[in-house]
Hints:
Structural class: alpha/beta
Strand content: 15-25%
Bound molecules: adenosine-5'-diphosphate, magnesium ion
CATH superfamily: P-loop containing nucleotide triphosphate hydrolases
Number of domains: 1
Amino acid sequence: MTRLICVSGGKGGVGKTTVTTNVGSALSEFGIDTVVVDANLTNPNLGFHLGIPLYPTTFHDVLRGEAHITEATYIHNSGLRVIPAGLSVDDLRNTSPDRIGEVLSETVGEPDVVLIDSAAGLGNESVNTIEAADELLLVTNPNLPAVTDALKTANIAEEAGTHVLGTVVNRKEFSDDELTNDEVEDMVGHPVVAEMPEHGKMKEAVARKTPIIHHEPDHHLSEKFRGLAADIAGLDYEPSPPGFVERMRQLFR
Length: 253
Ligand SMILES: Nc1ncnc2c1ncn2[C@@H]1O[C@H](COP(=O)(O)OP(=O)(O)O)[C@@H](O)[C@H]1O
Ligand SMILES: [Mg+2]
């Protein structure tokens, strides 16, 4: 049975695309047949994160009824399957998000997991995506504006009957000004399933157009993404602990 899992959180820049590409890559590493879809129709950038920004046929073409979903499905050199979105202004102007649910349902049956990267905000494209998905992985940062958006996103999922898997708190700097995980859980009403520190390697990975899981497979952040993916897939996986330098850094934070 295919699981349609949407990665959303409301606010832009919190790390939705980063989580999508890394969790997708980790699921694929585990041998789970996974497709990642760029349902961010207005500002698509999943292709940039994977180092392949330009594709002849995209999710936009499928939504306009000009291509079948299989024609817009590509295989990344890591083995992960990708349905990218179009980058042109024409795509943006001429494509309605109304058919997102119908088109995503066409992916059901074949892969084990379809991981859907959604747009920032709670406009039609995001809401259609959340409603079409079976499950939602929330991504937020430990500050009030981001968590407020995550709460609204969770509310929309609950109204739509989309099961909320939990909250990823990304870009944690471990400062006193941040919300704690307990505060995030109290506000959003869903458990924190992973916390990811703010880390230069994440920016480096995006600059290298490679998910950190492939850029630095042994990095403790890559291990964290594998741990999160294993939780989602219901697999037993014990991420290896951070190395000496990272443990020292955490100690002095
Ligand atoms: N944990 C992190 N530490 C440092 N930079 C991060 C982290 N997570 C994401 N980023 C950076 O933040 C930017 C926005 O991330 P992205 O995943 O595109 O967010 P969104 O999809 O929610 O808009 C990217 O440049 C990414 O490299
Ligand atoms: Mg994004």
